[in-house]
Design goal:
The protein is of the alpha+beta class. The protein is 40% helix and 15% strand. The protein is built from 23 helices and 17 strands. Strands 2-3-1-9-8-10 form a six-stranded antiparallel β-sheet. Strand 4 and strand 5 form a beta hairpin. The protein starts with a strand and ends in a 6-residue tail after the last helix.
């Protein structure tokens, strides 16, 4: 029930002939073709032909118009695309899509800024470029995929969740959100088609109330648009603000939502009270599911379908509970509040004060923000001011921090100075540090869009929708902290729609106690697998540092638990991919 597509781009020969042959052997059908390119889709993947210009794959909505998906472009929109290319799409449409465009001798494949529809690239022995929603389709199309790229895997583990084009599987690359792969007679290149910096303007005194009202309208319209694609969505409730906003908007839509909340035995991870308040106020059924150790198998990989490892073992319980609830409720899509912190400018730093001082200079406004940051964080004015001054003196941009924990010292030494680069992190001159951090948050969420349950039903993250992101970027960082509350504009926007306890709450629940429970319960098998596994065998792990951390009776730290649960999942991912590549059929092209 999830959309799948495959694009074939022939450097020589005819793409249609290759696509027709492939369509006879699988579940995809030929949907569109030109002499150079062909598109195959499954029955759940919508597409829109653009006369003379290309095809849109996935779900698209109008920037202005009813909250429902389009099944065609207007004549004027098609003419604009023919004339202006991808920029016309980005200005008039949004959604979860990949665009294939042919104009002026160039062929372009662009992924929309939300990243809602995946796009992976490979190449056949004959030189045909294949781009698809998942790696299995690349294999089916004859892409020449090798083994594990151990150097790339080392960089992935070190770079702490930084999205890159490279993956950990040789022969597979990823097209990042907002980026385009372009093929011309001169060769290939990658272009940035959508940059968050285009929507960050020097603040001009936007009123807080107006920002909140606009945000409420845009978020409501975006969620209603996605809701128009489903009848029985299952929404994940954390008990926090972001998922509550999504649930409230779904409850106002034509869909019939249900909800699920997860809880741990530790009170720090038990949000049921808040979830119950919300579900009762919205009158939607709520499933309460406990994080259970018997749902954990450290030999099974999360993200086994992905060409780079992602996730921590504890999420196995989350995924299993969501699949079970979806089956019980007859759900046809998963909805989440994923990315809300990132989009709504969540911060615990002094960046808002730095931004306001740089934008307005010292004065009453900066003093008000100093007070707001202090109320939110509990830090004193001198500490906040010093931190803001440090940010103001730094070069523009956000410095992505690597994570060397438990990695082999030789690997860490070889990667020191590695450029932590992403197109969206390239800040223009004069960029405000708070906005650079805001954009880094948008980058950080990109690898969390294809959880395991996305193989069962579509996973929709409506808060990452292009209209919401663009509006949020235009709101000054200090307004997100107004009144000493994080995500203040979003709280004000939906204050009338949510229980007061959710709007006012400052603490966040966390499943981390469950992660600590897993490490404590399984420390011996975790140590054995990491000590004797492929990561250590290829020189990526600092086993002498891991062994004392997992000694019986030793209390591991939160950061250690996060890393250990990530590494043990990587080990299972490696076993899964090794088996997959060894069993792959002989491929032809």
């Amino acid at each position: 029930m999830t959309p799948s597509y495959l694009i074939m781009v022939a450097r020589s020969g005819t793409a249609r002939q290759e696509a027709e042959a492939l369509a006879q052997t699988g579940d995809l059908r030929l949907a569109w073709s030109t002499p150079r390119a062909a598109l195959l889709v499954n029955d759940h993947c919508p597409f829109i032909e653009i006369d003379g210009s290309g095809v849109l794959i996935g779900t698209v909505f109008p920037h202005h118009g009813p909250a429902r998906a389009l099944d065609r472009l207007t004549d004027s929109e098609a003419v604009a695309v023919e004339r202006e290319g991808a920029s016309a799409l980005l200005h008039s449409l949004w959604g979860g899509y990949v665009a294939l465009l042919e104009r002026e001798g160039a062929l372009e494949v662009m992924r929309d800024p939300s990243g809602a529809l995946a796009c992976y690239r490979g190449e056949t022995r004959a030189g045909t470029v294949v781009l698809a929603s998942d790696v299995d389709l690349l294999l089916a199309a004859g892409a020449q995929i090798g083994g594990i790229d151990w150097s790339a895997l080392g960089r992935i583990l070190y770079s702490s969740g930084l999205p890159t084009r490279e993956t950990a599987v040789d022969g597979v690359t990823a097209l990042l959100p907002g980026m385009a792969w372009v093929l011309t007679p001169e060769g290939e290149r990658h272009l940035v088609r959508w940059s968050p910096w285009e929507f960050v303007e020097r603040p001009v005194g936007r009123e807080f109330g107006a920002a909140a009202e606009t945000l409420r309208r845009v978020v409501g319209h975006s969620v209603a648009s996605w809701a128009s694609r489903t009848r029985r969505p299952l929404v994940s409730l954390s008990g926090g603000l972001d998922s509550s906003i999504v649930a409230a908007c779904l409850a106002r839509s034509a869909a019939t939502p249900s909800a699920i909340t997860m809880f741990t035995d530790d009170p720090a991870g038990d949000e049921r009270d808040f979830a119950q308040q919300l579900a009762g106020a919205l009158r939607i059924p709520l499933t309460e599911s406990r994080y259970r150790l018997d749902m954990i198998d450290i030999e099974r990989a999360l993200g086994a379908h992905l060409p780079r490892p992602f996730g921590r073992v504890q999420a196995q319980a989350y995924e299993a509970a969501h699949r079970a609830a979806a089956a019980a409720q007859g759900a046809d899509a998963f909805f989440t509040g994923n990315g809300g912190d990132n989009v709504f400018g969540y911060s615990q730093s002094a960046a808002a004060l730095a931004d306001r001082a740089l934008a307005e200079g010292p004065g009453a406004g900066a003093f008000a923000t100093l007070r707001d940051v202090g109320r939110q964080t509990g830090a004193g004015p001198l500490r906040i001011t010093r931190a803001a001054l440090r940010l103001m003196r730094q070069p523009p941009g956000y410095r992505w921090k690597p994570d060397p924990l438990f990695l082999h010292p030789d690997l860490v030494a070889s990667l020191e100075g590695l450029a932590m680069a992403h197109p969206w992190l390239d800040a223009p001159e004069g960029a405000l540090p708070g906005k650079a951090a805001h954009i880094a948050g948008l980058v950080r969420v990109q690898l969390n869009l294809e959880p395991d349950r996305s193989r069962m039903l579509p996973v929709i993250n409506p808060l990452l929708s292009q209209p919401i992101v663009e509006l949020s970027l235009s709101i000054p960082s200090w307004q997100w902290r107004e009144g000493g509350r994080d995500r203040a504009v979003a709280r004000a926007a939906f204050a009338a729609d949510l229980p007061p306890a959710i709007v006012a709450r400052r603490a966040k629940g966390t499943p981390d106690p469950f992660g600590a429970q897993i490490v404590e319960h399984l420390r011996a098998p975790i140590l054995a697998r990491l000590r004797d596994g492929q990561l250590a065998g290829h020189g990526l792990l600092d086993v002498p540092a891991i062994e004392p951390a997992l000694l019986p009776g030793r209390q591991t730290t939160g950061l250690e638990n996060v890393r250990l649960l990530e590494l043990i999942n990587v080990e299972a991912w490696l076993e899964s991919w090794t088996a997959r590549l060894n069993e792959a059929p002989v491929r032809c092209a």
